[in-house]
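Subject: two folds for Thursday's group meeting

Dear M.,

Sorry for the delay on this. The cluster queue was jammed most of the week, so I only got both jobs back this morning. I'm pasting them in the order they finished. Each block is the input sequence followed by the predicted structure tokens. Could you check whether the formatting survives your parser before we put anything on slides? The first protein is the one we discussed after the seminar.
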Amino acid sequence: MKHDVAAQLPFLNGIEVHEFLYQKDDVVSPHSSLWGDFNFSLNGTLEFDIEGKYYLSPPSYGLWLPPRTEHQSLPVEHEIHYICIRIHPKFGQFLGNSCRCFSITPFFRALVVQILEQQKQATQPEYLEHLLQVLFDQLKQAPAHSHYLPQSSHPILVPILERLSDPELFNVSLQQVLHNFSVSDRHVLRLSQQELQLSLSEWRNRAKIIFAIHQIRQGMTIKQLAFALGYHHSSSFIEFFKRYTGQTPIQLKNAAI
């Protein structure tokens, strides 16, 4: 008597890994799924309108959308190669019932590439099942955040965040920017943790990363970008960029080629 191997392996029926390409100015109409979606980009920053709220994730972060969550992508300025991992509700409950941004590692990204190759071959279901199990375990233990770059409507923080995210001030120190505001360091620290769940230095670093990704895709040289962000040496900027994205600027630039 023959048995359906796939039917005996739950992750083959509960997790699907798909890859897509966004072309310049592509927009996906609002939609939702009965399954949960975990989306991340291999070479750029994903931007979504999720139930009226703005979310984004650079290459080292992915967005978890629970089942029946209406969302749409926003127009992109360059080609983006992105991954959608669809997860059955029986597994998705472990990732939460609200949209969240998860930090992902280079190992996770390499694992997804391996799974895509195995899905195309369709010759070793047991091995594919094992890879999907590892993928799910990686997701369950990945650090999660409400947003990659959270915002606040607090009257004290709004003007501060505007200044901290201004590219023309990226080469100015955090202390110099805050010096223009009549508020104590202790109060700002308390507000940032309360409103953003991040320190202002970490928030600003993430704003710099988003700016850097965009400028790299626009053709700015590494030396120019390092100078714009306040680094005296390109190597220091490259180290900073890799720490946040898991890639060097050159690897990011070549990812879509």
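Second protein, same layout:
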Amino acid sequence: MQLRAPAILIASRPHGETAAIARLLTSEHGLVAGYVAGGRGRQLRPVMIPGNLVEVELRAKSDSQLPFAKIELVQSRGPWLTEPLPAAAIAWTCALTASALPERNAYPALYEALAALLDAVCHAPSARGWLPALVAYETLLLRELGYGGARPDMTGDPTVLIAAFDRLEAPLARYLLADKRGDVMAARNLLRERLARIMS
């Protein structure tokens, strides 16, 4: 296996003393994982933030081997992680994507939608600017994985948007996160609490 592609880093976990295992979403290769030497070191720590846009190079001698990954930062989401609501939205969407998608299956529509959603979260003046994109992304994820889902009403009314967001909780938990619901849904619950404060 050998590839070089733009990617969204959606998860990173420690491995050994200084390395990390990165999970990345690419357009053409889907969800891929790689071993990042020094991923927890001072130089790469700011790069290994979920939500970051990166350029990844993966190399492995066989398909059964975890590839070695070289990661270069393209766009950082770090500045928004100090803001409670954007930080919660980024954490939830990345955790959902990392947990729900199978590895090495291409979902170009999901890649494009997630990239657009993360941009909206970071650049919209308020949650009202990105909540429709979040609801649309969750709906698209359910559809792409074969669980249907009607297109929600995308009016700008905050009450309607929150109701659409709430309706998606049950199918996400039941179909996509059944065996890992607790930890991942906790990220969604935190986001919901913060949305309630801002949009009430």
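Two things I noticed about the second structure. The mean pLDDT is 92. Residues 181-199 form the longest helix (19 residues).

Cheers,
T.
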